[in-house]
Amino acid sequence: MQTHQFKPDLPPPRQSIGAMAWLRDNLFSSWFNSLLTLVAIYLIWLIVPPLLQWALLDADWVGQTRADCTSDGACWVFVKERFGQFMYGFYPAELRWRVDLTALLAIFGAAPLFVSAMPRKAFYGIGFLVVYPLVAFWLLHGGMGLEVVRTSQWGGLMLTLVIAAVGIAGALPLGIALALGRRSDMPTIRVICVTFIEFWRGVPLITVLFMSSVMLPLFLPEGMSFDKLIRALIGVILFQSAYIAEVVRGGLQAIPKGQYEAAEAMGLGYWRMMGLVILPQALKMVIPGIVNTFISLFKDTSLVIIIGLFDLLNSIKQATTDPAWLGMATEGYVFAALVFWIFCFGMSRYSMHLERKLDTGHKR
Amino acid sequence: MSEAKLEPVIADRMIEMAGVNKWYGTFHVLKDINLNVRQGERIVICGPSGSGKSTTIRCINRLEEHQQGRIVVDGTELTHDLKHIEAVRREVGMVFQHFNLFPHLTVLQNCTLSPMWVRRMPKRKAHELAMQYLERVKIPEQAHKYPGQLSGGQQQRVAIARALCMQPKIMLFDEPTSSLDPEMVKEVLDTMIGLAEDGMTMLCVTHEMGFARTVADRVIFMDRGEIVEEAEPNTFFTSPENERTKLFLSQILH
Fold first, then answer.
1. Which of A175, B13, B154, B225 measures 20 to 30 Å from B203, CA to CA?
2. Distance of CA A262 to the CA centre of its chain
3. Domains of chain A by range and CATH?
4. How far is A123 from chain B (nearest CA, A)?
5. Which residues of A touch B104 (CB under 8 A)?
6. B98 vs chain A: nearest CA distance in angstroms?
7. Residues with Cβ < 8 Å from B143, sequence gap 6 or more?
Protein backbone atom coordinates (compact mmCIF):
# COMPACT_ATOMS: atom_id res chain seq x y z
CA MET A 1 0.00 0.00 0.00
CA GLN A 2 1.12 3.55 -0.69
CA THR A 3 1.49 6.18 2.07
CA HIS A 4 0.97 9.81 1.13
CA GLN A 5 3.80 12.17 2.14
CA PHE A 6 2.41 15.54 3.31
CA LYS A 7 4.41 18.65 2.37
CA PRO A 8 5.95 20.71 5.25
CA ASP A 9 4.59 24.20 6.15
CA LEU A 10 6.74 26.98 4.63
CA PRO A 11 7.18 30.60 5.83
CA PRO A 12 5.35 33.31 3.82
CA PRO A 13 7.29 35.09 1.04
CA ARG A 14 9.42 38.02 2.33
CA GLN A 15 7.76 40.89 0.45
CA SER A 16 4.43 40.27 2.27
CA ILE A 17 5.77 41.12 5.76
CA GLY A 18 7.59 44.07 7.40
CA ALA A 19 7.10 47.85 7.60
CA MET A 20 7.61 48.64 3.92
CA ALA A 21 5.11 45.99 2.93
CA TRP A 22 2.63 47.40 5.42
CA LEU A 23 3.02 50.92 4.00
CA ARG A 24 2.60 49.68 0.47
CA ASP A 25 -0.44 47.55 1.32
CA ASN A 26 -2.24 50.10 3.45
CA LEU A 27 -1.27 53.63 2.42
CA PHE A 28 -0.03 53.49 -1.16
CA SER A 29 -1.76 50.48 -2.65
CA SER A 30 -3.24 52.46 -5.57
CA TRP A 31 -3.00 55.99 -6.96
CA PHE A 32 -6.31 56.86 -5.27
CA ASN A 33 -5.16 55.51 -1.93
CA SER A 34 -1.87 57.44 -2.29
CA LEU A 35 -3.81 60.63 -3.00
CA LEU A 36 -5.98 60.10 0.08
CA THR A 37 -2.87 59.53 2.19
CA LEU A 38 -1.30 62.77 0.99
CA VAL A 39 -4.50 64.80 1.54
CA ALA A 40 -4.84 63.36 5.04
CA ILE A 41 -1.25 64.28 5.90
CA TYR A 42 -1.85 67.82 4.62
CA LEU A 43 -5.00 68.19 6.75
CA ILE A 44 -3.21 66.95 9.85
CA TRP A 45 -0.44 69.49 9.20
CA LEU A 46 -3.05 72.26 8.87
CA ILE A 47 -4.93 71.48 12.05
CA VAL A 48 -2.69 69.90 14.65
CA PRO A 49 0.27 72.34 14.98
CA PRO A 50 -1.90 75.48 15.52
CA LEU A 51 -4.03 73.58 18.00
CA LEU A 52 -0.98 72.47 19.98
CA GLN A 53 0.38 76.00 19.79
CA TRP A 54 -2.83 77.43 21.30
CA ALA A 55 -3.61 74.74 23.84
CA LEU A 56 -0.13 73.94 25.12
CA LEU A 57 2.83 76.00 23.87
CA ASP A 58 1.33 79.53 24.06
CA ALA A 59 -1.00 78.78 26.97
CA ASP A 60 -0.94 80.41 30.40
CA TRP A 61 -0.92 77.97 33.27
CA VAL A 62 -0.01 79.98 36.39
CA GLY A 63 -1.69 82.86 38.19
CA GLN A 64 -4.94 83.72 39.91
CA THR A 65 -6.70 86.35 37.80
CA ARG A 66 -7.46 87.21 34.25
CA ALA A 67 -4.55 89.67 34.26
CA ASP A 68 -2.14 86.75 34.51
CA CYS A 69 -3.16 85.61 31.04
CA THR A 70 -0.81 87.63 28.87
CA SER A 71 0.05 85.37 25.94
CA ASP A 72 -1.95 84.62 22.79
CA GLY A 73 -2.79 81.05 23.76
CA ALA A 74 -5.35 79.46 26.02
CA CYS A 75 -5.89 80.81 29.53
CA TRP A 76 -6.05 77.66 31.63
CA VAL A 77 -5.83 79.80 34.76
CA PHE A 78 -9.58 80.26 34.41
CA VAL A 79 -10.26 76.54 34.50
CA LYS A 80 -7.82 76.10 37.37
CA GLU A 81 -9.42 78.87 39.45
CA ARG A 82 -12.97 77.66 38.85
CA PHE A 83 -12.16 73.97 39.01
CA GLY A 84 -14.02 73.47 42.29
CA GLN A 85 -17.18 74.94 40.87
CA PHE A 86 -16.90 72.82 37.73
CA MET A 87 -16.59 69.67 39.79
CA TYR A 88 -19.01 70.30 42.67
CA GLY A 89 -21.32 73.19 41.64
CA PHE A 90 -22.58 75.00 44.73
CA TYR A 91 -21.87 72.10 47.05
CA PRO A 92 -20.48 73.73 50.23
CA ALA A 93 -16.69 73.72 50.03
CA GLU A 94 -16.18 72.33 53.54
CA LEU A 95 -18.46 69.35 52.74
CA ARG A 96 -16.94 68.41 49.41
CA TRP A 97 -15.03 65.57 51.02
CA ARG A 98 -18.37 63.76 51.11
CA VAL A 99 -18.58 63.87 47.33
CA ASP A 100 -14.99 62.66 47.05
CA LEU A 101 -15.70 59.84 49.48
CA THR A 102 -18.78 58.81 47.46
CA ALA A 103 -16.68 58.64 44.32
CA LEU A 104 -13.90 56.69 46.05
CA LEU A 105 -16.43 54.23 47.47
CA ALA A 106 -17.82 53.72 43.98
CA ILE A 107 -14.37 53.02 42.57
CA PHE A 108 -13.16 50.71 45.35
CA GLY A 109 -16.55 49.11 45.87
CA ALA A 110 -16.91 48.23 42.20
CA ALA A 111 -13.28 47.17 41.72
CA PRO A 112 -13.77 43.55 42.92
CA LEU A 113 -16.43 43.13 40.24
CA PHE A 114 -13.75 43.53 37.61
CA VAL A 115 -11.57 40.78 39.07
CA SER A 116 -12.38 37.69 37.03
CA ALA A 117 -11.42 35.18 39.69
CA MET A 118 -13.45 36.62 42.53
CA PRO A 119 -15.63 34.01 44.23
CA ARG A 120 -19.30 34.76 44.97
CA LYS A 121 -19.21 37.64 42.52
CA ALA A 122 -22.93 37.63 41.81
CA PHE A 123 -23.81 37.95 45.50
CA TYR A 124 -21.28 40.71 45.96
CA GLY A 125 -22.55 42.52 42.87
CA ILE A 126 -26.17 42.42 44.00
CA GLY A 127 -25.16 43.50 47.49
CA PHE A 128 -23.15 46.37 46.10
CA LEU A 129 -26.02 47.50 43.88
CA VAL A 130 -28.38 47.53 46.86
CA VAL A 131 -26.11 49.03 49.50
CA TYR A 132 -24.11 51.55 47.51
CA PRO A 133 -26.98 53.78 46.30
CA LEU A 134 -28.24 54.12 49.89
CA VAL A 135 -24.78 55.02 51.19
CA ALA A 136 -24.20 57.38 48.28
CA PHE A 137 -27.50 59.13 48.84
CA TRP A 138 -26.80 59.47 52.54
CA LEU A 139 -23.32 60.90 51.91
CA LEU A 140 -24.37 63.32 49.18
CA HIS A 141 -27.69 64.44 50.59
CA GLY A 142 -26.97 64.16 54.30
CA GLY A 143 -29.41 63.55 57.15
CA MET A 144 -28.98 61.08 60.00
CA GLY A 145 -26.07 62.94 61.56
CA LEU A 146 -24.75 64.57 58.42
CA GLU A 147 -25.51 68.15 57.46
CA VAL A 148 -28.18 68.22 54.75
CA VAL A 149 -27.11 69.54 51.34
CA ARG A 150 -30.19 70.17 49.24
CA THR A 151 -30.11 68.92 45.68
CA SER A 152 -30.42 72.49 44.40
CA GLN A 153 -26.85 72.96 45.65
CA TRP A 154 -25.57 69.93 43.76
CA GLY A 155 -23.81 70.72 40.54
CA GLY A 156 -20.86 70.41 38.24
CA LEU A 157 -19.40 67.13 37.15
CA MET A 158 -20.77 65.53 40.29
CA LEU A 159 -24.35 66.26 39.20
CA THR A 160 -23.60 65.06 35.67
CA LEU A 161 -22.29 61.78 37.06
CA VAL A 162 -25.23 61.38 39.43
CA ILE A 163 -27.74 61.83 36.61
CA ALA A 164 -25.81 59.54 34.27
CA ALA A 165 -25.26 56.81 36.88
CA VAL A 166 -28.84 56.81 38.13
CA GLY A 167 -30.08 57.01 34.54
CA ILE A 168 -28.00 54.02 33.48
CA ALA A 169 -28.76 51.97 36.59
CA GLY A 170 -32.48 52.63 36.18
CA ALA A 171 -32.84 52.49 32.42
CA LEU A 172 -31.05 49.16 31.87
CA PRO A 173 -33.29 46.90 33.98
CA LEU A 174 -36.43 48.76 32.95
CA GLY A 175 -35.38 48.56 29.29
CA ILE A 176 -34.76 44.82 29.53
CA ALA A 177 -38.15 44.31 31.16
CA LEU A 178 -39.81 46.36 28.39
CA ALA A 179 -38.02 44.38 25.68
CA LEU A 180 -39.20 41.10 27.20
CA GLY A 181 -42.69 42.52 27.55
CA ARG A 182 -42.78 43.58 23.94
CA ARG A 183 -42.06 40.01 22.89
CA SER A 184 -44.47 38.49 25.39
CA ASP A 185 -47.20 36.07 24.35
CA MET A 186 -49.69 37.98 26.45
CA PRO A 187 -51.37 40.70 24.35
CA THR A 188 -52.10 43.00 27.30
CA ILE A 189 -48.47 43.15 28.36
CA ARG A 190 -47.32 43.52 24.77
CA VAL A 191 -49.66 46.43 24.09
CA ILE A 192 -48.64 48.22 27.29
CA CYS A 193 -44.95 47.85 26.48
CA VAL A 194 -45.31 48.90 22.85
CA THR A 195 -47.32 51.96 23.84
CA PHE A 196 -44.82 52.91 26.51
CA ILE A 197 -41.82 52.51 24.21
CA GLU A 198 -43.37 54.33 21.29
CA PHE A 199 -44.53 57.18 23.49
CA TRP A 200 -41.13 57.84 25.05
CA ARG A 201 -39.27 57.38 21.80
CA GLY A 202 -41.60 59.83 20.13
CA VAL A 203 -40.95 62.83 22.36
CA PRO A 204 -37.70 64.80 22.62
CA LEU A 205 -35.82 64.59 25.90
CA ILE A 206 -36.07 68.36 26.26
CA THR A 207 -39.85 68.07 26.23
CA VAL A 208 -39.71 65.34 28.84
CA LEU A 209 -37.52 67.42 31.12
CA PHE A 210 -39.65 70.48 30.56
CA MET A 211 -42.84 68.62 31.35
CA SER A 212 -41.35 67.03 34.44
CA SER A 213 -40.27 70.39 35.73
CA VAL A 214 -42.99 72.78 34.59
CA MET A 215 -46.13 70.81 33.89
CA LEU A 216 -46.01 67.97 36.38
CA PRO A 217 -46.37 70.27 39.43
CA LEU A 218 -49.59 71.62 37.91
CA PHE A 219 -51.14 68.17 38.04
CA LEU A 220 -49.97 67.37 41.54
CA PRO A 221 -52.19 68.27 44.50
CA GLU A 222 -51.60 71.56 46.27
CA GLY A 223 -48.59 71.58 48.58
CA MET A 224 -47.27 68.34 47.23
CA SER A 225 -44.05 68.66 45.37
CA PHE A 226 -41.07 66.55 44.93
CA ASP A 227 -37.53 67.37 44.20
CA LYS A 228 -36.64 68.83 40.82
CA LEU A 229 -33.65 66.54 40.45
CA ILE A 230 -35.71 63.44 41.19
CA ARG A 231 -38.25 64.49 38.59
CA ALA A 232 -35.50 64.97 36.03
CA LEU A 233 -34.01 61.58 36.95
CA ILE A 234 -37.34 59.82 36.47
CA GLY A 235 -37.71 61.56 33.12
CA VAL A 236 -34.25 60.46 32.00
CA ILE A 237 -34.80 56.87 33.14
CA LEU A 238 -38.16 56.48 31.39
CA PHE A 239 -36.86 58.14 28.22
CA GLN A 240 -33.68 56.09 27.93
CA SER A 241 -35.33 52.82 28.94
CA ALA A 242 -37.37 52.98 25.74
CA TYR A 243 -34.17 53.13 23.70
CA ILE A 244 -32.52 50.35 25.70
CA ALA A 245 -35.66 48.25 25.20
CA GLU A 246 -35.38 48.48 21.43
CA VAL A 247 -31.68 47.68 21.47
CA VAL A 248 -32.27 44.63 23.66
CA ARG A 249 -35.19 43.53 21.50
CA GLY A 250 -32.82 43.50 18.56
CA GLY A 251 -30.60 41.09 20.49
CA LEU A 252 -33.51 38.89 21.52
CA GLN A 253 -34.64 38.57 17.93
CA ALA A 254 -31.17 37.51 16.85
CA ILE A 255 -31.16 34.46 19.15
CA PRO A 256 -31.96 31.35 17.09
CA LYS A 257 -35.23 29.59 17.84
CA GLY A 258 -33.28 26.45 18.68
CA GLN A 259 -31.91 28.08 21.82
CA TYR A 260 -35.43 28.71 23.12
CA GLU A 261 -36.46 25.17 22.20
CA ALA A 262 -33.44 23.58 23.87
CA ALA A 263 -34.08 25.57 27.04
CA GLU A 264 -37.79 24.68 27.01
CA ALA A 265 -37.10 21.02 26.34
CA MET A 266 -34.83 20.98 29.41
CA GLY A 267 -37.77 22.09 31.53
CA LEU A 268 -36.47 25.56 32.31
CA GLY A 269 -39.45 27.83 32.86
CA TYR A 270 -39.80 31.24 31.22
CA TRP A 271 -37.76 33.25 33.73
CA ARG A 272 -34.94 30.75 34.05
CA MET A 273 -34.82 30.33 30.28
CA MET A 274 -34.55 34.10 29.83
CA GLY A 275 -32.16 34.67 32.71
CA LEU A 276 -29.79 31.77 32.10
CA VAL A 277 -29.90 31.16 28.38
CA ILE A 278 -31.45 33.90 26.27
CA LEU A 279 -30.56 37.21 27.95
CA PRO A 280 -26.87 36.44 28.55
CA GLN A 281 -26.47 35.82 24.83
CA ALA A 282 -28.75 38.63 23.67
CA LEU A 283 -27.17 41.26 25.92
CA LYS A 284 -23.67 40.20 24.91
CA MET A 285 -24.65 40.63 21.31
CA VAL A 286 -25.99 44.16 21.80
CA ILE A 287 -23.22 45.54 24.01
CA PRO A 288 -22.25 48.07 21.30
CA GLY A 289 -25.84 49.29 21.07
CA ILE A 290 -26.31 49.47 24.83
CA VAL A 291 -23.07 51.38 25.34
CA ASN A 292 -24.04 53.64 22.47
CA THR A 293 -27.24 54.47 24.34
CA PHE A 294 -25.32 55.02 27.57
CA ILE A 295 -22.91 57.38 25.86
CA SER A 296 -25.75 59.39 24.40
CA LEU A 297 -27.45 59.37 27.81
CA PHE A 298 -24.25 60.68 29.37
CA LYS A 299 -24.08 63.53 26.90
CA ASP A 300 -27.80 64.24 27.11
CA THR A 301 -27.42 64.96 30.83
CA SER A 302 -26.27 68.41 29.73
CA LEU A 303 -29.85 69.10 28.64
CA VAL A 304 -30.86 69.54 32.29
CA ILE A 305 -29.57 73.07 31.72
CA ILE A 306 -33.06 73.98 30.49
CA ILE A 307 -34.70 73.17 33.80
CA GLY A 308 -32.11 75.13 35.71
CA LEU A 309 -29.93 72.35 37.09
CA PHE A 310 -26.23 73.19 37.18
CA ASP A 311 -24.47 70.21 35.66
CA LEU A 312 -20.91 70.42 34.33
CA LEU A 313 -21.82 72.35 31.19
CA ASN A 314 -24.14 74.78 32.94
CA SER A 315 -21.55 75.43 35.67
CA ILE A 316 -19.00 76.29 33.01
CA LYS A 317 -21.47 78.42 31.11
CA GLN A 318 -22.25 80.31 34.25
CA ALA A 319 -18.59 80.84 35.06
CA THR A 320 -17.95 82.34 31.64
CA THR A 321 -20.53 85.04 32.33
CA ASP A 322 -18.59 86.18 35.41
CA PRO A 323 -17.44 89.77 34.65
CA ALA A 324 -14.01 88.96 36.09
CA TRP A 325 -13.46 86.26 33.49
CA LEU A 326 -15.12 87.61 30.37
CA GLY A 327 -13.96 86.11 27.11
CA MET A 328 -13.06 82.72 28.55
CA ALA A 329 -15.85 80.83 26.79
CA THR A 330 -13.48 78.93 24.47
CA GLU A 331 -11.33 77.60 27.31
CA GLY A 332 -14.41 76.68 29.31
CA TYR A 333 -16.11 74.75 26.52
CA VAL A 334 -12.91 73.06 25.42
CA PHE A 335 -12.51 71.86 28.99
CA ALA A 336 -16.14 70.66 29.06
CA ALA A 337 -15.62 68.83 25.78
CA LEU A 338 -12.46 67.21 27.11
CA VAL A 339 -14.17 65.95 30.28
CA PHE A 340 -17.14 64.58 28.34
CA TRP A 341 -14.82 62.98 25.83
CA ILE A 342 -12.74 61.24 28.50
CA PHE A 343 -15.82 59.63 30.04
CA CYS A 344 -17.41 58.64 26.74
CA PHE A 345 -14.17 57.29 25.34
CA GLY A 346 -13.69 55.33 28.56
CA MET A 347 -17.11 53.74 28.16
CA SER A 348 -16.42 52.95 24.55
CA ARG A 349 -13.10 51.24 25.35
CA TYR A 350 -14.66 49.30 28.19
CA SER A 351 -17.39 48.03 25.91
CA MET A 352 -14.81 46.81 23.41
CA HIS A 353 -12.95 45.06 26.19
CA LEU A 354 -16.19 43.42 27.36
CA GLU A 355 -17.03 42.23 23.89
CA ARG A 356 -13.66 40.55 23.55
CA LYS A 357 -13.81 39.05 27.01
CA LEU A 358 -17.29 37.62 26.56
CA ASP A 359 -16.69 36.30 23.08
CA THR A 360 -17.07 32.56 23.37
CA GLY A 361 -18.24 32.12 19.80
CA HIS A 362 -14.82 30.95 18.61
CA LYS A 363 -15.76 31.50 15.04
CA ARG A 364 -13.35 29.80 12.73
CA MET B 1 -57.74 20.09 34.78
CA SER B 2 -59.45 17.19 36.46
CA GLU B 3 -56.85 14.47 36.78
CA ALA B 4 -53.12 15.05 36.68
CA LYS B 5 -52.06 11.44 36.96
CA LEU B 6 -54.00 9.09 34.76
CA GLU B 7 -53.68 5.40 35.37
CA PRO B 8 -52.00 4.01 32.23
CA VAL B 9 -53.99 1.28 30.54
CA ILE B 10 -50.98 -0.94 30.22
CA ALA B 11 -48.67 -0.76 33.19
CA ASP B 12 -45.42 -0.12 31.35
CA ARG B 13 -46.77 2.29 28.73
CA MET B 14 -44.56 5.41 28.54
CA ILE B 15 -46.18 7.36 25.75
CA GLU B 16 -49.72 7.21 24.52
CA MET B 17 -50.82 9.29 21.55
CA ALA B 18 -54.46 8.84 20.63
CA GLY B 19 -56.18 10.55 17.71
CA VAL B 20 -53.70 13.41 17.63
CA ASN B 21 -54.40 16.11 15.05
CA LYS B 22 -52.52 19.30 14.44
CA TRP B 23 -52.78 22.16 12.00
CA TYR B 24 -50.37 24.95 11.06
CA GLY B 25 -52.94 27.59 10.14
CA THR B 26 -55.09 25.70 7.67
CA PHE B 27 -52.43 23.14 6.82
CA HIS B 28 -53.25 19.78 8.36
CA VAL B 29 -49.82 18.62 9.47
CA LEU B 30 -50.68 15.66 11.71
CA LYS B 31 -53.66 13.45 10.87
CA ASP B 32 -55.04 11.12 13.49
CA ILE B 33 -51.77 9.90 14.95
CA ASN B 34 -52.08 6.87 17.20
CA LEU B 35 -48.89 5.67 18.79
CA ASN B 36 -48.12 3.79 21.96
CA VAL B 37 -44.63 3.32 23.28
CA ARG B 38 -43.74 0.84 26.00
CA GLN B 39 -41.02 1.42 28.51
CA GLY B 40 -37.61 0.53 27.05
CA GLU B 41 -38.92 0.44 23.52
CA ARG B 42 -36.78 1.88 20.71
CA ILE B 43 -38.70 3.42 17.88
CA VAL B 44 -37.36 4.86 14.66
CA ILE B 45 -39.55 7.23 12.68
CA CYS B 46 -38.69 7.82 9.05
CA GLY B 47 -40.35 9.38 6.06
CA PRO B 48 -39.87 12.09 3.45
CA SER B 49 -39.34 15.69 4.52
CA GLY B 50 -42.52 17.47 5.49
CA SER B 51 -44.19 14.24 6.51
CA GLY B 52 -44.75 15.38 10.10
CA LYS B 53 -42.24 13.09 11.78
CA SER B 54 -40.40 15.86 13.62
CA THR B 55 -43.69 17.50 14.55
CA THR B 56 -44.87 14.20 16.03
CA ILE B 57 -41.98 13.86 18.45
CA ARG B 58 -41.99 17.58 19.21
CA CYS B 59 -45.59 17.19 20.38
CA ILE B 60 -44.40 14.72 22.98
CA ASN B 61 -42.54 17.40 24.95
CA ARG B 62 -44.90 20.14 23.88
CA LEU B 63 -42.50 22.09 21.71
CA GLU B 64 -45.49 21.88 19.39
CA GLU B 65 -49.06 22.00 20.62
CA HIS B 66 -51.58 19.49 19.33
CA GLN B 67 -55.12 20.67 18.77
CA GLN B 68 -57.04 17.42 18.96
CA GLY B 69 -56.52 14.08 20.62
CA ARG B 70 -54.71 12.97 23.71
CA ILE B 71 -51.04 12.69 24.56
CA VAL B 72 -50.13 11.02 27.83
CA VAL B 73 -46.48 10.82 28.80
CA ASP B 74 -45.56 8.63 31.78
CA GLY B 75 -49.06 9.05 33.18
CA THR B 76 -49.23 12.81 32.76
CA GLU B 77 -51.55 14.19 30.13
CA LEU B 78 -50.31 17.17 28.13
CA THR B 79 -52.77 20.01 28.46
CA HIS B 80 -52.47 23.78 28.66
CA ASP B 81 -51.54 23.41 32.32
CA LEU B 82 -47.93 24.60 32.61
CA LYS B 83 -47.33 22.30 35.57
CA HIS B 84 -48.12 19.26 33.44
CA ILE B 85 -45.94 20.51 30.62
CA GLU B 86 -43.00 21.10 32.93
CA ALA B 87 -43.52 17.73 34.59
CA VAL B 88 -43.37 16.02 31.20
CA ARG B 89 -40.34 18.01 30.09
CA ARG B 90 -38.46 16.94 33.20
CA GLU B 91 -38.87 13.31 32.14
CA VAL B 92 -38.15 13.75 28.44
CA GLY B 93 -34.71 14.54 27.05
CA MET B 94 -34.33 15.89 23.55
CA VAL B 95 -31.50 15.98 21.02
CA PHE B 96 -31.82 18.32 18.07
CA GLN B 97 -30.57 18.30 14.51
CA HIS B 98 -28.56 21.47 15.07
CA PHE B 99 -27.34 20.50 18.57
CA ASN B 100 -28.67 23.76 20.11
CA LEU B 101 -25.96 23.84 22.74
CA PHE B 102 -25.74 27.11 24.64
CA PRO B 103 -22.69 28.84 23.14
CA HIS B 104 -22.09 31.16 26.11
CA LEU B 105 -21.65 28.26 28.53
CA THR B 106 -18.91 25.66 28.71
CA VAL B 107 -19.66 22.04 27.96
CA LEU B 108 -19.82 21.32 31.68
CA GLN B 109 -22.10 24.30 32.35
CA ASN B 110 -24.38 23.20 29.52
CA CYS B 111 -24.70 19.84 31.25
CA THR B 112 -25.19 21.11 34.80
CA LEU B 113 -27.75 23.77 33.89
CA SER B 114 -30.90 21.70 34.17
CA PRO B 115 -29.79 19.48 37.09
CA MET B 116 -29.02 22.64 39.06
CA TRP B 117 -31.93 24.84 38.03
CA VAL B 118 -34.69 22.31 37.36
CA ARG B 119 -33.79 19.45 39.69
CA ARG B 120 -32.32 21.81 42.32
CA MET B 121 -29.25 19.64 42.67
CA PRO B 122 -26.27 21.07 44.60
CA LYS B 123 -23.47 22.28 42.33
CA ARG B 124 -20.96 19.61 43.27
CA LYS B 125 -23.42 16.78 42.73
CA ALA B 126 -24.46 18.25 39.39
CA HIS B 127 -20.79 18.37 38.37
CA GLU B 128 -20.27 14.74 39.27
CA LEU B 129 -23.35 13.75 37.35
CA ALA B 130 -22.33 15.78 34.31
CA MET B 131 -18.82 14.33 34.29
CA GLN B 132 -20.27 10.85 34.55
CA TYR B 133 -22.36 11.39 31.42
CA LEU B 134 -19.58 13.21 29.58
CA GLU B 135 -17.41 10.16 30.21
CA ARG B 136 -20.18 7.99 28.90
CA VAL B 137 -20.27 9.93 25.61
CA LYS B 138 -16.44 9.82 25.71
CA ILE B 139 -15.54 13.50 25.90
CA PRO B 140 -14.79 14.27 29.57
CA GLU B 141 -11.57 16.05 28.48
CA GLN B 142 -13.61 18.71 26.65
CA ALA B 143 -15.61 19.69 29.74
CA HIS B 144 -14.14 23.16 30.08
CA LYS B 145 -14.25 24.12 26.43
CA TYR B 146 -16.99 26.11 24.76
CA PRO B 147 -19.28 24.42 22.22
CA GLY B 148 -17.83 26.58 19.44
CA GLN B 149 -14.46 24.92 19.95
CA LEU B 150 -15.77 21.41 19.30
CA SER B 151 -16.46 19.50 16.11
CA GLY B 152 -20.02 18.76 15.07
CA GLY B 153 -19.88 15.17 16.27
CA GLN B 154 -18.46 16.22 19.62
CA GLN B 155 -21.15 18.88 19.97
CA GLN B 156 -23.88 16.37 19.31
CA ARG B 157 -22.42 14.00 21.89
CA VAL B 158 -22.38 16.86 24.41
CA ALA B 159 -26.02 17.51 23.53
CA ILE B 160 -26.80 13.87 24.29
CA ALA B 161 -24.93 14.10 27.60
CA ARG B 162 -26.78 17.30 28.42
CA ALA B 163 -30.13 15.63 27.82
CA LEU B 164 -29.09 12.60 29.88
CA CYS B 165 -28.14 14.83 32.81
CA MET B 166 -31.85 15.39 33.32
CA GLN B 167 -31.95 11.63 33.99
CA PRO B 168 -34.96 11.37 31.70
CA LYS B 169 -37.16 8.33 31.22
CA ILE B 170 -37.56 9.02 27.52
CA MET B 171 -35.12 10.36 24.92
CA LEU B 172 -36.26 12.05 21.73
CA PHE B 173 -33.84 12.39 18.82
CA ASP B 174 -34.78 14.76 16.00
CA GLU B 175 -32.51 13.90 13.06
CA PRO B 176 -29.42 13.83 15.27
CA THR B 177 -26.97 13.02 12.49
CA SER B 178 -28.45 15.03 9.62
CA SER B 179 -26.22 18.08 9.99
CA LEU B 180 -23.01 16.17 10.68
CA ASP B 181 -20.08 15.61 8.37
CA PRO B 182 -20.07 11.99 7.18
CA GLU B 183 -16.93 11.26 9.20
CA MET B 184 -18.71 12.12 12.44
CA VAL B 185 -21.98 10.26 12.02
CA LYS B 186 -20.61 7.04 13.42
CA GLU B 187 -19.45 8.43 16.75
CA VAL B 188 -22.92 9.83 17.42
CA LEU B 189 -24.69 6.66 16.31
CA ASP B 190 -22.40 4.55 18.52
CA THR B 191 -23.36 6.71 21.49
CA MET B 192 -27.03 6.23 20.67
CA ILE B 193 -26.63 2.48 20.28
CA GLY B 194 -24.95 2.35 23.69
CA LEU B 195 -27.90 4.20 25.14
CA ALA B 196 -30.37 1.82 23.52
CA GLU B 197 -28.50 -1.19 24.91
CA ASP B 198 -28.93 0.24 28.40
CA GLY B 199 -32.69 0.10 28.00
CA MET B 200 -33.57 3.76 27.45
CA THR B 201 -36.96 4.45 25.90
CA MET B 202 -36.06 6.15 22.63
CA LEU B 203 -37.84 7.78 19.74
CA CYS B 204 -35.56 8.67 16.85
CA VAL B 205 -36.41 10.56 13.74
CA THR B 206 -33.59 9.56 11.45
CA HIS B 207 -32.65 8.45 7.97
CA GLU B 208 -29.93 6.13 9.25
CA MET B 209 -31.48 2.87 8.16
CA GLY B 210 -28.51 0.89 9.47
CA PHE B 211 -29.27 2.26 12.91
CA ALA B 212 -32.93 1.38 12.51
CA ARG B 213 -32.01 -2.20 11.57
CA THR B 214 -29.69 -2.82 14.50
CA VAL B 215 -31.44 -0.93 17.26
CA ALA B 216 -35.14 -0.37 16.59
CA ASP B 217 -37.91 -2.50 18.04
CA ARG B 218 -40.33 -0.85 15.66
CA VAL B 219 -39.95 1.31 12.57
CA ILE B 220 -42.65 3.82 11.74
CA PHE B 221 -43.03 5.28 8.28
CA MET B 222 -44.85 8.60 7.97
CA ASP B 223 -46.02 10.49 4.93
CA ARG B 224 -48.21 13.58 4.62
CA GLY B 225 -48.92 13.73 8.32
CA GLU B 226 -50.05 10.13 8.70
CA ILE B 227 -48.53 6.93 9.97
CA VAL B 228 -48.47 4.86 6.81
CA GLU B 229 -46.73 1.76 8.04
CA GLU B 230 -45.55 0.40 11.35
CA ALA B 231 -43.53 -2.80 11.65
CA GLU B 232 -40.55 -4.41 13.28
CA PRO B 233 -37.37 -3.66 11.30
CA ASN B 234 -36.99 -7.02 9.63
CA THR B 235 -40.46 -6.98 8.15
CA PHE B 236 -40.22 -3.29 7.41
CA PHE B 237 -37.10 -3.54 5.29
CA THR B 238 -37.67 -6.90 3.63
CA SER B 239 -41.40 -7.00 2.98
CA PRO B 240 -43.12 -3.66 3.46
CA GLU B 241 -46.86 -3.83 2.91
CA ASN B 242 -47.48 -0.41 1.53
CA GLU B 243 -46.60 0.85 -1.96
CA ARG B 244 -45.56 4.24 -0.58
CA THR B 245 -43.14 2.59 1.86
CA LYS B 246 -41.60 0.53 -0.91
CA LEU B 247 -41.05 3.62 -3.03
CA PHE B 248 -39.46 5.47 -0.10
CA LEU B 249 -37.17 2.58 0.74
CA SER B 250 -36.14 2.14 -2.88
CA GLN B 251 -35.16 5.81 -2.95
CA ILE B 252 -33.03 5.83 0.19
CA LEU B 253 -31.55 2.31 0.05
CA HIS B 254 -29.48 2.27 -3.08
1. B154
2. 35
3. 77-91+149-357 (1.10.3720.10)
4. 16
5. 280-281, 284, 358, 360
6. 8
7. B106, B107, B108, B130, B131, B134
